[in-house]
């Protein structure tokens, strides 16, 4: 399979990987080629991999693979929702593994990336040496509706039942200003839920940055309206198939985005899994206690 080289540095290389349906994935590899292969799955859906993620991994121990999922981040076409489902993403991960010549890798991710990590590992257990996730999101329409209930006051015309539907309509409409306003509303609400102690941002996105948010949340709406193309029962059954595989779940006790009770339910379905609670922490990936627990789990041999 051909790739399009973008750049190369001593410890970091990147390329575009065509995966069919007109999609090309932006991929970065980093660290020690002879080290333990570790896959990184970003959240969202639609967020893309941040360069800050490298703070959580050790390039002297691991060969780390980052990629932006279909339509997300630097993958092309940006914001594309066609041929973009969870099953497509799982298939993409396998294409990427084969392309890199990796036999088995540890699969890691946070929030939606945690959900995708567990779903991929269940589908391809033979290719998975272990799973490390944080702040896992439970898929399904009920969990999505729970997250958006706090926006009902901001979008009263949606009632309490169709907040996501109203946002999706605005993001996909013909009025660019309305789409940008919807993306900003979603972004500020998500920040308030994920980092309640952070307060409002010092400045709000404008111009190109705001247009990127429209693409991000248009893609996220596409997934969330469909319950992330997974139902809760099927997902929990898939998690159960990971019993006796090294699986660690890390979760903040104050998480308002992904309720801690759902981490307990997933943990209960995976025999011999480990659940690590972070006191005083919500959904923040880079909270000092969360980051420390993550590095500790990642640097534990499996």
Structure description:
- This protein is an alpha/beta fold.
- It folds into 2 domains: about 5-140 and about 230-300, Rossmann fold (3-Layer(aba) Sandwich), CATH 3.40.50; about 140-225, no CATH class.
- About 35% of the residues lie in helices and about 20% in strands.
- The protein is built from 9 helices and 9 strands.
- It has a 9-stranded mixed sheet, with helices on both faces.
- The longest helix is centred in the middle third of the chain and has 19 residues, at about 175-195.
- It is globular.
Task: Summarize the entry for a quick read.
By secondary structure, the protein is of the alpha/beta class. The chain is 37% helix and 20% strand.
Biggest sheet: strands side by side, in what order? 1-2-3-5-4-6-7-8-9
Any idea what the shape is? globular
CATH class of the largest domain: Alpha Beta
- Examine the secondary-structure arrangement and name the CATH architecture of the largest domain: 3-Layer(aba) Sandwich
- Give the distance, in angstroms, between the N- and C-terminal Cα atoms: 31 Å
Overall pLDDT confidence? 92
SSE order in H/E notation? Answer: EEEEEHEHEHHHHHEHEH
Any chance you could write out the topology, listing elements then pairs?
Blueprint: E1 4-8, E2 12-20, E3 23-31, E4 36-41, E5 62-67, H1 86-100, E6 105-110, H2 112-123, E7 128-134, H3 141-148, H4 163-171, H5 176-194, H6 207-225, H7 232-240, E8 247-252, H8 260-269, E9 274-278, H9 288-298
Parallel strand pairs: 4-5, 4-6, 6-7, 7-8, 8-9
Antiparallel strand pairs: 1-2, 2-3, 3-5
Helix pairs in contact: 1-2, 2-7, 4-5, 4-6, 5-6
């Amino acid at each position: 399979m051909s790739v399009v080289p973008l750049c190369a540095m001593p410890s970091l290389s990147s390329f575009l990987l065509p995966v069919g349906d007109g999609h090309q994935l932006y991929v970065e590899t980093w660290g020690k080629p002879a080290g333990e292969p570790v896959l990184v799955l970003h959240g969202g859906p639609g967020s893309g991999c941040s360069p800050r993620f490298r703070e959580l991994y050790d390039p002297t121990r691991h060969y780390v693979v980052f990629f932006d999922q279909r339509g997300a981040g630097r993958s092309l076409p940006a914001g594309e929702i066609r041929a973009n489902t969870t099953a497509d993403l799982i298939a993409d991960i396998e294409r990427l593994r084969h392309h890199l010549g990796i036999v088995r890798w540890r699969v890691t991710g946070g929030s939606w990336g945690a959900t995708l990590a567990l779903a991929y590992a269940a589908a391809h257990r033979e290719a998975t040496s272990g799973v490390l996730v944080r702040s896992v999101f439970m898929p399904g329409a009920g969990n999505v509706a729970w997250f958006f209930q706090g926006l009902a006051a901001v979008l009263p015309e949606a009632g309490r039942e169709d907040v996501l539907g109203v946002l999706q309509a605005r993001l996909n409409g013909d009025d660019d200003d309305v789409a940008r306003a919807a993306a900003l509303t979603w972004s500020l609400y998500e920040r308030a839920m994920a980092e309640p102690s952070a307060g409002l941002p010092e400045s709000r996105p404008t111009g190109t940055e705001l247009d990127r948010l429209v693409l991000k949340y248009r893609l996220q709406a596409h997934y969330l309206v469909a319950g992330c193309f997974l139902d809760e029962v099927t997902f929990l059954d898939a998690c159960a198939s990971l019993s006796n595989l090294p699986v660690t779940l890390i979760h903040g006790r104050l998480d308002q985005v992904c309720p801690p009770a759902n981490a307990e339910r997933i943990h209960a379905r995976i025999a011999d899994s480990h659940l690590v609670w972070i006191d005083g922490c919500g959904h923040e990936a880079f909270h000092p206690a969360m980051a420390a627990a993550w590095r500790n789990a990642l640097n534990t041999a499996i």
